Description:
Arc Repressor Mutant, subunit A
Amino acid sequence: MNQSSCRPSDPLEVALGMLARRPYSVAEMRRALEKRFGGGPPVRAAVARLRELGYLDDKKFAALYASSLARNRGFGSHRIRRELKAKLVDYKYIEPALGQAFEEVDESQLLERALLKKIKTLRRPVTPARIHSLCQSLMRQGFRSDDIMKAVRSRPELKPGAEDIESMNYEL
């Protein structure tokens, strides 16, 4: 049987299949359907119906996704904000979702856990370049630069390299 004959041609049917695999934000679903069906009334109707049924809800999606990224991936707030924006979540739901996620999980504990993991793999001797690399890695995980520097300075095993790094500027 050729594949085109078994592919659903109804945007709602396709969207339901997509949602069975993973959750989507409203705009992300709309974009995927428009890419496949070219937009128009059938796509708008499918998205509207999915919202009506509660299958597409940016507020709920943002809260669940942010919580999952904090708990399971150990990401900081900056990284989660970027991930939510990449998923095309409506901006008005991003900050409340972050607030809720970090009520459940302490961001400073996530940073401490990530730092401990990085220290275990840090090659010796501890040099400013290695500390810089470690800090950059933690920033990519979404932690604030000043929080990272406080955590790094508090670790005695990182003192030799951290003292020389004070003048370096860490910005996202």
